[in-house]
């Protein structure tokens, strides 16, 4: 069993939000080179933003698939999700981590955000969590500036200008990250939806679940549902059911196989549930549909 180093292993610089008069941020850290030691399982009761400037790192989650982050990418870890750095898989890496405290008292102090805008930020961070996102040029420049300000910050001899620069860099980073999460353009969203549809068309006859589908496309469930519905007008569940029923209609019309065999063939786990869904979507039972086609 690998030993665990202390939590601050590899932390180059770290500043608490309270030290710069920014209650929105619990702590911001610059972390370097996790090449051997595994970070222990931990969870924050707040959002954590992870920005990788260079190198590569892998995060494990207790209830989610692992996520690999490379230089020029970032990820949001939502509150309460246990995670850790994966052992022996990290290249030399520079990573900036920001733990947000959007529910703290006086959280809007020294920020450009209103309480309503912070709710907007929370929504977009939650909707796009545990998914790899690219660092756009503006966000990358902001993160690089934040990293430099972290290096310059002296906890013993606080410089007001440096502290002001830290607050500005942090607020800009938070805003740019949230804005980028909402900027999935039509082309990218269509590619994501097309990949999901291809996967459903290939696998609908198996015991395909929506969780399988979400894991395949690599997006958070809520964000994927939002993109899918905006592109197709249907939820993924509805689209999957329609694929199964379309195949079932062909089998009922063109073969003499039993309703039970067809139900299992197209991905239902019982003929009773298949008949219920078929009736709901077509207005006929499977047997009724077959009889109508025979006339």
Detail the topology: elements first, then pairings:
Layout lengths: L10 E6 L8 E8 L15 E7 L1 E6 L5 E4 L2 E5 L5 E3 L8 E7 L14 H13 L5 E2 L2 H16 L7 H22 L4 H18 L6 H8 L3 H12 L3 H19 L4 H7 L5 H12 L3 H9 L1
Antiparallel strand pairs: 1-2, 2-8, 3-6, 3-8, 4-5, 4-7, 6-9
Fourth-level CATH superfamily of the largest domain: Regulatory protein AraC
- Return residue spans where pLDDT drops below 50 for at least 5 consecutive residues: 1-8
Taken as a percent bin, the fraction of beta residues is 15-25%
The general outline is elongated
List keywords for this structure.
10 helices, Arc Repressor Mutant, subunit A, 46% helix, elongated, alpha+beta, three-stranded antiparallel sheet, disordered N terminus
Structure write-up:
By secondary structure, this protein is of the alpha+beta class. It has 2 domains: 11-181, Regulatory protein AraC (Jelly Rolls), CATH 2.60.120.280; 186-294, Homeodomain-like (Arc Repressor Mutant, subunit A). The chain has helices at residues 115-127, 137-152, 160-181, 186-203, 210-217, 221-232, 236-254, 259-265, 271-282, 286-294, and strands spanning 11-16, 25-32, 48-54, 56-61, 67-70, 73-77, 83-85, 94-100, 133-134. The chain has a 6-stranded antiparallel β-sheet, with helices on one face. Strand 1 and strand 2 form a beta hairpin. The protein is elongated and about 85 Å long. The N and C termini lie far apart (70 Å). The model is unreliable at 1-8 (pLDDT under 50).
What's the short version?
This protein is of the alpha+beta class and 295 residues long.
């Amino acid at each position: 069993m690998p030993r665990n180093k202390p939590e601050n292993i590899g932390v180059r610089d770290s500043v608490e939000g309270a030290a710069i008069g920014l209650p929105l941020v619990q702590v911001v850290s610059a972390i370097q080179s996790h090449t051997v030691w595994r970070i222990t399982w931990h969870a924050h009761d707040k959002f954590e933003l992870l920005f990788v400037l260079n190198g590569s790192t892998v995060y494990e989650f207790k209830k989610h698939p692992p996520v690999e982050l490379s230089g020029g990418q970032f990820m949001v870890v939502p509150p309460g999700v246990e995670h850790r750095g994966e052992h022996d898989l990290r290249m030399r890496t520079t990573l900036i981590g920001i733990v947000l405290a959007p529910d703290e008292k006086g959280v809007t102090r020294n920020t450009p955000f209103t309480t309503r805008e912070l709710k907007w930020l929370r929504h977009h961070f939650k909707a796009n969590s545990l998914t790899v996102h690219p660092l756009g040029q503006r966000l990358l420049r902001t993160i690089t500036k934040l990293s430099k300000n972290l290096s310059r910050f002296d906890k013993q001899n606080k410089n007001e200008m440096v502290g002001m620069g830290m607050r500005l860099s942090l607020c800009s980073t938070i805003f740019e990250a949230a804005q980028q999460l909402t900027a999935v353009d039509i082309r990218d969203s269509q590619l994501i939806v097309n990949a999901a549809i291809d996967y459903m068309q290939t696998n609908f006859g198996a015991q395909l679940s929506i969780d399988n589908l979400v894991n395949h496309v690599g997006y958070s469930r809520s964000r994927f549902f939002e993109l899918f519905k905006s592109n197709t007008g249907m939820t993924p569940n509805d689209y999957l059911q329609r694929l199964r029923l379309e195949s079932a209609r062909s089998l009922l019309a063109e073969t003499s196989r039993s309703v039970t065999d067809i139900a299992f063939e197209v991905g239902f786990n019982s003929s009773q549930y298949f008949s219920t869904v078929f009736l709901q979507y077509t207005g006929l039972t499977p047997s009724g549909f077959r009889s109508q086609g025979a006339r």
